[in-house]
Request: fold
Amino acid sequence: MATTPIKIISYSILLFITISIANGKVQPPQSTLVFYLQDVRKGPKATVSPIIGINGKVWSYNTFGTILVVDDPITISPSSYSTQIGRAQGIITVTSQDGTNVNIVLSLVFNNAQYTSSTLEIQGTSCQRDNLRELGVVSGTGRFRFARGFAVFETISTYSQSVIRLNVTLAIP
Reply:
């Protein structure tokens, strides 16, 4: 059975309409949230600590094979005295031989009234020497169920402790 030019044109138009509808799909609404992580590396109140590394090497942020655990307070402003709304809990692994990249798996666990019992799950590779580091938001629970998006980490202070601004852009279905 031969295909007529009318059938070919009809199929082409149908395919074009289907592609156009798919590309013009309505995007879910986006939200941007800004938080601050209070990262204390030393002392009795340290919130990030190396737990294992390669024998014979110093376990640090710059040493390949070092695994660190994190339990940073999340605050609403850069001040460590501002209102705490949750904890950033997870694992950092130094994954590049030269120590520049780390792999981060981080849960933002909220405990304030607005987001209580909700979490955001962040994951990806972070180049430690970059001022802005972008990682993926891969999921969430509670108010953030099925969340997708990205998080930009920016170190804004490194005096006695590091303060990291976290801009999270979400598309929540």
